[in-house]
């Protein structure tokens, strides 16, 4: 059943979906890691593909930039397409001093300055977290690959260009990196009783030099992609 944002029909999307923000990164993953690929969505340029990785069906689809965008796409995947697991494979800005460009960050939980969670009508402050099963599998794979990684909380911000920047405050409270989507993914997964994990590659750092180009962000995160795919086929 198609939606205003996704032309796929039931059965065209796998139970596990990798989601980069950039649809061209989705295309890169499909063309370089999957076999027997089929494009299931081109609506609004948000490319989606289903194929096989080491014999198991996996989908990959862009989610766009920001909490509202990923909120729409993941809600539809969880609730309309019977997707059970979503692994975000994105970029982030480093906050802590020991986090460097090209390091991998597993987002255990997500702080936010967004109002996205207000819709759920919860008293107090809801703390969205990753699904432990996905997190444990992915961390073990990263250890086997011998890549540098960090596990901890990230800041999901509503704004890229900020007039009042709270990043240093969150850094002092232990946040590893800042990005723009994880909190919506984790909240949608919690409400739908599904599984979610964000894996990030550090593309720049807010407090020291170093920054990747747009092309490097599109095609250069192969360690993260392989970790996500190897996690996917264990589910």
UniProtKB/TrEMBL annotation:
The keyword Glycosyltransferase applies. Pfam families: PNP_UDP_1. The record marks 217 as: Important for catalytic activity. Signal peptide: none annotated. Residues 16-228 form the Nucleoside phosphorylase domain. Its EC number is 2.4.2.1. It catalyses: uridine + phosphate = alpha-D-ribose 1-phosphate + uracil; a purine 2'-deoxy-D-ribonucleoside + phosphate = a purine nucleobase + 2-deoxy-alpha-D-ribose 1-phosphate; a purine D-ribonucleoside + phosphate = a purine nucleobase + alpha-D-ribose 1-phosphate. One of its GO terms (cellular component) is cytosol. Keywords: Glycosyltransferase, Transferase. GO terms for molecular function: purine-nucleoside phosphorylase activity; uridine phosphorylase activity. The keyword Transcription regulation does not apply. Belongs to the PNP/UDP phosphorylase family. Homohexamer; trimer of homodimers. This is Purine nucleoside phosphorylase DeoD-type. It comes from Butyrivibrio hungatei.
